UniProtKB/TrEMBL annotation:
Organism: Bombella pluederhausensis
Region (Disordered): 42-71
The family this protein is said to belong to: Belongs to the low molecular weight phosphotyrosine protein phosphatase family.
Record has Ribosomal protein as a keyword: no
Phosphotyrosine protein phosphatase I domain: residues covered: 8-155
Record-listed E.C. numbers: 3.1.3.48
Broad class of enzyme this protein falls into: hydrolase
UniProt entry keywords in alphabetical sequence: Hydrolase, Protein phosphatase
Domain of life, per lineage: Bacteria
Ranges annotated as biased composition (Basic and acidic residues): 50-59
PANTHER family xref list: LOW MOLECULAR WEIGHT PHOSPHOTYROSINE PROTEIN PHOSPHATASE, LOW MOLECULAR WEIGHT PROTEIN TYROSINE PHOSPHATASE
Protein name, as recorded: protein-tyrosine-phosphatase
Keyword Metal-binding: no
Amino acid sequence: MTHSPSTPSFLFVCTGNICRSPLAELAMRREAEQRGIMADIDSAGTGNWHEGDRPDPRARATARRHGLDGNPLRARQVRREDFDRFDHIIALDRSHLAALRKLQPAGSKAQLSLLMDHVPGQEGRDVIDPYYGSEAGFETTWQDVETGCKALATRYLDNNPIK
């Protein structure tokens, strides 16, 4: 989706775009939908290891438990044009934020941030990667991304005229 200059846009970034960032994309889509706001929301990874793959089955199961469908999502890598397409590029941990800062072209419009920096009292905290852990880790990740996306939505979507 390309967006008009007044449509808010968000890109969530993690390592491979199969666990944390797709869950954040789904959480933010729900926040926009609940507010009746049109927004350009996507996710990507800093690497291309899983390009074209669906989110991890455990991430999709977690999304399903929360009433969301992760099946249509496909992993992709961050691209140079993302820095002009999106208003907000949100990293899920500090390593992603550092990688994005290195990739960001001079003069791009994107504002880079760490997801948990939008949650009072959680600034500087990473969303833990659940990939190597159990299914329970995905629920913890979901709680973090949902909290972060609610805070983002309150800040950037509430009182937005684009409906």
